[in-house]
């Protein structure tokens, strides 16, 4: 009886330690390149980003997608996005990128960004739920998604500059 009780306690202790290990790792995991993350209302970590256009400097708080699974999910299933928020997709290397809007409720503007932080092109007012491919048109490092109409309202065009830690020190 005592030995079965001891085996049971040992099994429970082992199970508890196995469950606790991943939790501790995920709670402490912070992206190495995060620049002063800020917790927004949805609980997502955000980073500062600005776009400098002829009409001025426009500040945003962006969620940064750095993994394949995060990039694959993106803004899918979100039903709202504040005017000063966005999502930045970090592709980690310069490449031709194709985006789509499957399972995305919000019409978006997609800003395709070169490694040096300059805007390559803007795909304005993309269609929600569409599987139509939206190409970068040239190799890029990142894509910024903001609410549809933002690029036109702020005058964001090819050649404008995006300021974010990802682009610092890149040619």
| H and E order | HEEEHEEEEEEHE
Quickly count the helices: 3
- Sheet with the most strands? 8 strands, mixed
Q: Which CATH architecture of the largest domain would you pick?
A: Sandwich
Mean pLDDT: 81
How much strand?
Answer: 35-45%
Show unreliable segments: 1-8, 10-41
Folded structure, characterized:
By secondary structure, the protein is an alpha+beta fold. It has two domains: 1-30; 38-167, Sandwich (Jelly Rolls). Helix content is 22%, strand content 36%. The chain has three helices and ten strands. The protein has helices spanning 2-28, 68-73, 150-154; strands at residues 38-39, 45-53, 56-65, 85-95, 98-99, 108-113, 119-126, 134-135, 140-147, 161-163. The strands form two sheets. Strands 1, 2, 3, 4, 6, 7, 9 and 10 form an eight-stranded mixed beta sheet that branches. A two-stranded antiparallel sheet has the order 5-8. β3 (56-65), α2 (68-73) and β4 form a beta-alpha-beta unit. The longest helix is centred in the N-terminal third of the chain and has 27 residues, at 2-28. The chain is globular, with a radius of gyration of 21 Å. Mean pLDDT is 81; it is low at 1-8 and 10-41.
């Amino acid at each position: 009886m005592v030995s079965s009780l001891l085996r049971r306690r040992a099994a429970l202790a082992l199970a508890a330690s196995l469950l606790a290990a991943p939790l501790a790792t995920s709670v402490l995991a912070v992206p190495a390149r995060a620049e002063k993350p800020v917790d927004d209302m949805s609980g997502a970590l955000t980073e500062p980003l600005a776009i400098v256009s002829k009409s001025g400097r426009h500040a945003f708080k962006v969620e940064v997608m750095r993994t394949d699974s995060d990039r694959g999910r993106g803004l899918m299933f979100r039903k709202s996005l504040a005017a000063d928020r966005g999502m930045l997709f970090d592709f980690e290397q310069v490449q031709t990128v194709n985006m789509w809007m499957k399972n995305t409720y919000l019409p978006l503007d997609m800003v395709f960004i070169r490694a040096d932080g300059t805007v390559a092109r803007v795909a304005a007012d993309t269609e929600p739920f569409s599987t139509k491919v939206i190409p970068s048109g040239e190799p890029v490092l990142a894509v910024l998604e903001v609410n549809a109409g933002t690029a036109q309202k702020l005058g964001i065009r090819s050649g404008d500059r995006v300021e974010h830690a990802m682009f610092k020190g890149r040619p």
